[in-house]
Design goal:
The chain has twelve helices and 15 strands. By secondary structure, it is an alpha/beta fold. It folds into two domains: 71 residues, no CATH class; 194 residues, Rossmann fold (3-Layer(aba) Sandwich), CATH 3.40.50.300. Bound molecules: adenosine-5'-triphosphate and magnesium ion (MG).
C-alpha cells in the first residue's frame, strides 16, 4: 500500500500533508504532519515511523535536496537479521539464542546491563567475533560464512564507532579519519579526494579544520566526534554506535544524539546504538530491544518499551535495582 505515492517536494517548498490515514493489520492509524518551508520530507518519514513504528517503512531515501520519495506502509525491509545465534567464551554463555531483526533506515537501540553481550553482538555483525552457531545476515548475505575479503566489503558498508573511541594517539586526526578510506579505497581515491572526504566528515560532526591535531589534544566529546567522523567517512549504509555518549557532558551528549538523528535523516543511515543512557535512547530511537540472559527479552517501539510490564525492562529503564538487591536484604544476606 503506497501511502504517499511518488511525491516530489523541492527543498524550500512548503507542503502540508495532513490526515493521511491507512489501515494496517486491521487497525487504522492517522497522522497529521506539517512540513515547514525548507524542511525535507525525511523528517516526515521519521515522524511517520514514530507515529506507527512497526508498520511503516520508507524506501531508500534520496539525498537531501532531491526530496522525491515513496512511502510504503507494507514494505518494511529487514536489513540485518540474527537468527538463533549462540555465542560463548569458554564456559560463559553470552548468547543462548539471539533472534533480532533490524530494518533498513531505522534508528535501533540495544539496551542491557553491563556485560550482557551488547558489544559482542555488534562485533559478531561485522565479523570481528564469530558466532558459534546460528545465522547472521546483512542485506541477505550470510555473515557467518564469509571470509576476510568479503567481511572487509561488509565493513565498508557497516561502520562501527567503538565504545573506547579507538583513536590512534600516534596518528593525526586526518590520519585517524582517513584510516578506513586507506583500508577500503586506497586504489580508488586520490590524495585530494581523501582530503576532501576527511574534511566533509569532520564538517558533518561539527569539527572542521582540525586535521592536524592529535587525539591527545582533544576533549572527550571531540574524540567521540572524531571517531564518528572516521565511521562515516567511508559513507556506510549502517553505523554501529557502541555507547556513543558515555562519559560526555549533557551538551556533548545532546550534540552526539543530534548527530546520530541527523545522519540517519540526511544520509539515510541505519543506526544501531548501544547505550545505557535512557534519555538518549528515547530521544533517538525508532525501535529498541533489551538483551538479558543471552536473549532478547523485549523488542518494540519506544512506547511499547516504556510501557513494558516486564520487571527486568522496567527496572532497567527506570534505573531501579531489583527488590532483592535492596540494602537491607543485601546486609542480611552478607
Ligand atoms: N574476546 C573476548 N574473549 C573473552 N570474553 C569476552 C570477549 N569479548 C567479550 N567477552 C566477555 O563477554 C561478555 C560480554 O561482553 P560485552 O563487551 O559484549 O558486554 P557489554 O554488554 O557490551 O557490556 P558493557 O555495557 O559493560 O560494555 C563479558 O563478560 C566479556 O568479558
Ligand atoms: Mg560494551
Amino acid at each position: 500500500m503506497v501511502l504517499s505515492a511518488p511525491c516530489r517536494v523541492a527543498t524550500g517548498e512548503a507542503a502540508t500533508t495532513s490526515g493521511a490515514t491507512s489501515s494496517v493489520g486491521g487497525r487504522g492509524f492517522r497522522t497529521s504532519v506539517r512540513r515547514r518551508a525548507g524542511r525535507c520530507p525525511h523528517a516526515f518519514v521519521r515522524r511517520l515511523r514514530f507515529a506507527r513504528s512497526g508498520t511503516t517503512g520508507a524506501s531508500r531515501l534520496p539525498p537531501r535536496g532531491e526530496c522525491a520519495y515513496i512511502l510504503r506502509v507494507d514494505q518494511v525491509e529487514t536489513l540485518i537479521r540474527f537468527s538463533n545465534v549462540k555465542k560463548r567464551f569458554g564456559p560463559k554463555v553470552i548468547y543462548s539464542g539471539l533472534d533480532l531483526s533490524i530494518r533498513r533506515g531505522e534508528a535501533f537501540t540495544i539496551l542491557g546491563g553491563s556485560g550482557v553481550g551488547k558489544s559482542v553482538m555488534l562485533k559478531m555483525l561485522i565479523g570481528l567475533l564469530t558466532a558459534d552457531s546460528g545465522s547472521i545476515t546483512f542485506d541477505g548475505q550470510e555473515i557467518t560464512k564469509m571470509g576476510e575479503r568479503e567481511l572487509s566489503r561488509v565493513r565498508q558498508r557497516i561502520a562501527m564507532l567503538f565504545q573506547s573511541g579507538a583513536l590512534f594517539d600516534s596518528l593525526s586526526v586526518f590520519e585517524n579519519v582517513a584510516y578506513g578510506l586507506e583500508e577500503h579505497f586506497r586504489e580508488k581515491m586520490s590524495r585530494s579526494e581523501m582530503e576532501d572526504r576527511v574534511a566533509w566528515a569532520l564538517g558533518l560532526v561539527g569539527l572542521p579544520g582540525i586535521e592536524e591535531m592529535r587525539p591527545s589534544d582533544l576533549s572527550g566529546g571531540m574524540r567521540k566526534r572524531v571517531g564518528l567522523a572516521r565511521a562515516i567517512a567511508v559513507q556506510p549504509e549502517v553505523v554501529l554506535y557502541d555507547e556513543p555518549t558515555t562519559g560526555l557532558d549533557p551538551i556533548n551528549t545532546a550534540r552526539v544524539n543530534h548527530m546520530i538523528v541527523g545522519l540517519q535523516e540526511k544520509l539515510s543511515i541505519t543506526s544501531i546504538v548501544v547505550t545505557h543512557d535512557m534519555g538518549s535512547a528515547f530521544a533517538i530511537s525508532d525501535r529498541m530491544a533489551m538483551v538479558h540472559s543471552g536473549r532478547i527479552i523485549a523488542c518494540g517501539d519506544v512506547e511499547s518499551i516504556k510501557e513494558s510490564d516486564d520487571d527486568r525492562v522496567y527496572n532497567f529503564i527506570h534505573g531501579k535495582a531489583p527488590v532483592e538487591e535492596d540494602v537491607e536484604t543485601l546486609l542480611r544476606s552478607g
